[in-house]
Amino acid sequence: MASSLMSLVNDDSRYQKSFQLFLERSSEHQCMQDFIHNRLPDILASIGDGKSHLNVIGVGSGAGEIDLKMLSELHMKHPGVTVDNEVVEPSSQQLHNYKVLVSQKPGLDYIKFTWNKMTASQFEELWNVKKMTKKADFIHMIQMLYYVKDPGATVSFFQSLLNKNGKLLIILVSEESGWGKLWKAYREQLCNTEISQCVTAGDIKGFLDSNGVSYKSYELPSQLDITECFTEGDEKGELLLDFLTEVLDFSRTATPELKAGVTELLRHPDCSVVSDGKVIFNNNLGVIVLDQLS
User: Fold this and answer.
1) Stretch 267-292: mean pLDDT
2) Domain 8-41+53-291 is of which CATH architecture?
3) Among 69, 109, 132, 224, which lies 20 to 30 A Cα-Cα from 29?
């Protein structure tokens, strides 16, 4: 990343604020929930091998809303089973929000939560140091592979933790999305590889293909209203631009050329459609499901 640009993840409170706005302006959680409700139960049907106890690991679980929806589907598919749920999340604010959510939600007595305030890499390090032999029946990594140094190696590590019939669920932006197009054009200027990777589901599929690892994949249609990004000085537009570029105060710190190039591409038909005067960005997600390595 150009030295004058700071990564958004360096300012956690602005990151959380821009992420919240992104969720309000996009259909991201809705399309994930549709997938969890309609597709995930069949994926989870075969896990556990009839055991009365299941091990789950959530990597980058955030505030837990999506986690609890998946655990609820798991519970309906395998009633009477107890669950050991390892939560791996580096943001103390998000972990706090997750704990509050759990305390307010009845009927979770079948789950034992273990809170790990750490990154995926720290979790891997700790796991190896402790020489853990525990295996997991379900592991999910939703929208988090951008924040590890080597996404392929991280996928391989967590796949190695799967039990017989275990499933690893990965959700990332699709290579067909506006994100994919934006990163292809501006990867050099926008991606601070020390902190985050411009990685799409297509990159992970490429890595798996080159290693001969089989997987199932799905495309989830999703949209993001970015109209406010094109109003100079609009506070919400600036927050969204920060989120889209992962650059702190992008509007104020990017060169005029970079800013003009990025905003032009965001409007381009490759990334967005204009509908009823609104600019709707393609926020499609890619889902990848892996089994235990045979």
Assistant:
1) 97
2) 3-Layer(aba) Sandwich (3.40)
3) 109
